[in-house]
Amino acid sequence: MKSNNVIDLVCGTALPFGRSKVSNAQCGAYEGISGEGYIQITKFLTQHVSALIVLALTVLPNIAKANEAEPASSGYWVPRQPPRANYRIDCTIKLSENFVLQGKEVIDFVNTTSRPMQTLAITWFKQRNQTLRITANGKPVALPTPLGSFPQDFTLAEPISPGKSLTLEVEFGISIPAPPEKPDNIGPVTDWPRLWWGFPTQDDYEVKLDVPDEYIIATTGRFDRKTGRYHAEGVPSFGFYLGTGYQVLEGQAQDVTVRCLYKSKDKKCAGLLHETAIDVINFYREWLGFYPYRILTIIPGMDRPAGGYPAATNIVVIHGMSRMAEKPELHWRWITAHEIGHQYWSRYVMEKDEPGWLWIGLGIYADREYCRARGLGKQKHRELMARYVKGVRDGHDTTVNISQEQRSNIKFDFNNIVTHGKGFSIISALDCILGDTLFDRIYRRCLKEFSGRRLGVHEFRAVCEQESGQDLGCFFEQWVNSNKYLSYEIVSKKCEQTVGTYISEIEIQCLGSLKMPVPVVAYFEDGTTQRTFTNRLRDIDTIRFESQSALKEVRLDPDQALPMVVPPPSAGEQELAKAIQDLPWVGAGEKALEVFNKTQDSKMSDPGRWFKLGMTLYDGKYYEQALEAFRKTQTHAQDDPSRACAALVWQGHLLDLLKQRDEALKSYNDALGKSASLDMRHDQYGIRLNRQWVQKRLKEPFRRK
Q1: Within 435-472, where are the H helices?
Q2: What is the 3-state secondary structure (H, E, C) of 530-555?
Q3: How far apart are the first and last CA of the chain?
Q4: How many other C-beta atoms are found inside a 10 Å radius of the C-beta of residue 208?
Q5: Buried b / exposed e across 520-545, counting CB within 10 Å, b at 16+?
Q6: Are residues 493 and 447 in the same domain?
Q7: What letter would DSSP give residue 150?
């Protein structure tokens, strides 16, 4: 066992074991996203930690609201700003037939509220073989045996008066069957027995770890060799990660230590990520005046290059380092800046609302500013907006502010379409109408005033209105509380010369349901430009420019800061999109054929819809129609090489089934030349499309089982 062969890392979720490679079937992630909370978890682990999902939804009964009448001294109530606690943890990890985590912790805090506190709550994750014992100021605390779901409330023998302190001594342990092979890594792990308030809080940690000798230790805190403990101040969670066979790149961004953990075969990608991280931190510090923490570590995630997520304070996970060639340099630089931005938003300033679109949007705004400053272009941020625009075209209800019950009934990818795509679109639109200088002031003020606190849309709107002097109710109501979408178009323009001057008139029409000022820029033959905004109260607005030379060009939203849905979706388009969405992947039968027949009179160009339609037609054995659907997929998937390649392979399958072997071979050969990024699973048929699969089809025709 060891406790001092260490590097300072940070990590973040409960007890995942892993090998170096994880299949796409074992984990899922979305680019930039994220928790961004898409975490590397093996099938083995999933069976043991499903209770964590339930945990997030568990609510204590009889929670008193802050503005209710004074509760009984023994009642449970939640302060607006809970006391900041100090956790001193001693933990041992053993790995043989069972994975055993056991330890002791001392929790100290002072009641900084104005009311006495007697009933508290503690949370952890629920497992079958688990122990948890608590002593408060030397007196045992009663908890149910066996433990039920978490959180668990408990009552102290005496209330803690305002200004008085409490010491809780906690003994904890957990034992679950270990995987059959010793894992390459354990973690990230961030779940300890801790006080529960129903929302994240920033606390201080002093942690000592004793782990198997073959593992290197990585934690959220800085290691103090004198005490043998890791120290972290003001963090929402403390995490650790254990791994074997890793190398470490280390460098400095002024006083911030930046590390990247990697396997030797991934050295090139690790070098780019590490170099970028140092540059990003230096940029953020120069722009915002500070970086909130003293360490930042990058660790590898799953095998597929699908983005990343902020595992915990001071750590970011980047997926797909071993497949660096499948993505351009822009992707790796952007995703690094993106995840580091979330150290400000979600760690330094915590999210108050659910879903967490605000911290996502503000974090993406940070990486957008980095991309602008480094000349990396607008592509990644236009792609984020495009997710939302596609969601509008697909007929999804993209209202942001909905209840938990409503979210539980959503069948589309709300995280990517709304939380990320629309979340960033809202922030970008607000920046557009307020202007860079004013929005920058708002951004900085929120970081300063909400350090260590939670920021929600109501607080954010209040700051925006105070700084701008405007009532922004119309903006937030439309963007946050409705399904309205933005669509403006130039319908006519003319330029006439008068005595000594030119008069240009531009007619702009609102085609969508959301109304807001939209920037318009006129470009003239002498190189001059003029900029103004449309009037949001008018469905058709005529804008007049006076210039010394003739009009050359006029543009709406020249900075591409707005998610314009142009042309707006027709009722037929949205109806068709919903019909395809509602088709089951297996067993659609004649319903798939009915939907396919409706497409014959449409101009549907979405490759994802065509691909799903092709799969459902194949499932129903409508092979000729499926072949046409996959050809349409290939035609419209020029910006999605992986999907286009998969469509070619499926064309080969269908041509084999239609006894057209020569044509099938042409499809397979075409796919082979484009198969570097192909890795797609169809578990309902036991099929995994990759380069090896295509090579096998060149030798053996596809046969349906």
Answers
A1: 436-449, 457-468
A2: EEEECCCCCCEEEEEEEECCCEEEEE
A3: 51
A4: 17
A5: bbbbbeeeeebeeebbbeeeebebeb
A6: no
A7: S
CB 149 within 8 A of CB 208: no
> How far is the CA of 216 from the CAs of 2, 194, 245, 385, 550, in angstroms?
9, 25, 9, 40, 69
Furthest-apart CA pair in the chain: how many Å? 93
What is the phi/psi pair of residue 304, to 5°? -80, 135
What CATH number should be reported for the domain holding residue 141?
A: 2.60.40.1730
Whether the Cβ atoms of residue 509 and residue 534 lie closer than 8 Å to each other:
no
Whether residue 257 lies inside any domain: the answer is no
Q: Average model confidence (pLDDT) for the chain?
A: 87
Spatial strand order in the sheet of 117-123: 152-160, 117-123, 194-195
Nearest CA among 355, 323, 325 for reference residue 426: 355
The owner of tokens 């059959």 is: 180
533 and 611 both lie in a single domain: no
Residues 527-543 have pLDDT tens digits of 999 999 999 999 999 99
CA distances, 473 to each of 89, 357, 480 (Å): 47, 18, 10
Say if 398 falls within a structural domain: yes
* Amino acid 179: pLDDT: 85
How far apart are alpha carbons 100 and 178 in whole angstroms? Answer: 9
CB neighbourhood size of 423 (10 A): 27
Residue 87 counted as domain residue: yes
Kindly state whether residue 303 falls inside one of the protein's structural domains: no
Higher pLDDT, 185 or 656: 656
All residues at 6 or more sequence positions from 662 whose CB lies less than 8 Å from its CB, including other chains: none
CATH number at residue 390: 1.10.390.10
Tokens 């209840």 appear where?
403
The strands making up 130-136's β-sheet, listed across from edge to edge, are 139-141, 130-136, 165-177, 98-110, 86-95, 203-210, 229-235, 222-224
Cα–Cα distance list, 567 to 84, 392, 489 (Å): 52, 12, 8
pLDDT of residue 125: 82
Closest CA to 105 of 78, 127, 132: 132
Residue given tokens 């000729």 in the structure block: 624
Beta-bridged to residue 395, according to DSSP, are: none
* Statement: residue 620 has pLDDT above 90: yes
Nearest Cα residue to 345 out of 206, 236, 210, 229:
236
Query: Nearest 5°: CA angle at 289, between 287 and 290?
Result: 115
Distance CA 31, CA 367 (A): 14
Task: For residues 521 and 647, state if they share a domain.
Answer: no
Do 469 and 513 sit in the same domain of this protein? no
Q: Is the pTM of this model over 0.85?
A: no
Q: H or E element: which one contains 636?
A: helix 623-636
What is the model's pLDDT at position 575?
85
Enclosing domain of residue 114: 6-244
Split into its structural domains, the chain has a count of: 4
CB atoms within 10 A of CB 191: 21
Pairing, β 529-533 against β 519-524: antiparallel
* 470 and 514 inside one domain: no
Alpha carbons 156 and 118: distance in angstroms, whole number: 5
Rounded Cα gap, residues 562 and 287, in angstroms: 24
**Which residues are registered as beta bridge partners of 243?**
185, 216
